[in-house]
Amino acid sequence: MTGRIAACRFGVIMLRIFWWTTLIATAALAASLITMLTSDWPATWANGWPGWAIAVAITIIVESIIFWIGIITVYITSVQLGIKIRVIGVLCGWIPIANLIALRLIIRTVSEEVRFESAKERLDRSRAAARICATRYPVLLVHGVFFRDTKALNYWGRIPAELQRNGAVIYYGNHQSAASVPDAARELTDRIRQIVQTTGCGKVNVIAHSKGGLDMRYAIARCGAAPYVASLTTINTPHRGCGFADYLLEKIPLATQKQVESAYNAAASHLGDKQPDFMAAVHDLTQAGCARLNAEIGDSNELSGSASIAGPFAGIVCQSVGSKLAHATTGKFPLNFTYPLVKWFDGPNDGLVAQPSFPWGEHFTWLEPNGTRGISHADMIDLNRENIPGFDVREFYVQIVAALKQRGL
Hints:
The protein is an alpha/beta fold. Helix content is 53%, strand content 8%.
């Protein structure tokens, strides 16, 4: 068990002790008070109240110490509490009855986190020797639009660490946050060549999310990356564009678009982008933009994964993944609020991209877990570090990479 999970477990134990000892002590003190009030009261009260008052004071002090140790511990160490439950705990902490309900929610949430992470730890220990993600070629993770690869905020959440723990060697695309598909593709091709030349690995297994999948397809088809790519797995990529994006560009005034573009490009430049191009990235994500790209680089109908297929994708294992969000409220900001709009235009979707746009390559995986939550565009990269019931995103990536290893890649 990791130190963080051990601390979470300790915090939960302290809160459970607080819960039960507070109930027992409160009942005992209440019974004592009733006894004093219903007995020969003047004498009993005069003789017993000092001791009762001292017992109350000691109980309050001891229970307060237990509570604050427990609550501070879980607030510091828990990932699954999130901002919402933490705020609920603070706001309800001063309201009788509501504070007990909030405390039960905190205990239940952190207890489930301890159970889940402990089981995950046991699983990883049991298969450590097998190194199931130790592929022949390293894994290159390619981010989507409007994000960058940074150590402070890992775009891929807990996924890289889980892959590395199971034997994978990980690299990142390190390309700009917003650029046209051709420009991003050229950056990624240079990055892949640098990795191959520096390490001598020969090729890379690419896992690309969202627009990153379009960037990599273009890199392979038009920029010379093909000889250095063993496989390409696209995750929730809009291969045929986002219909609601076309609609928004038609409805939003051009002046407003220019203002947003200018503000974004200025901010991105300060954060490290050399030539950010907000509107070029947006236009390449529309259905019209993707239709142009697909006419230039080919669509999935031309692919079968067979090495006998001619063209730049010959010999490259190509596959895709897509997921369905159940409701906008069951996902988390920021990549869920457009769900109703996408559903109106394109049908079942992940909050940004609709089902018809996902499939590409020789194999397509559609993720639609049981329950009312679903899986959002952001969930697929573990952006919120949330343990989703019925879907372990870290294990999903482990199995993707393990399958590549089994194919000799």
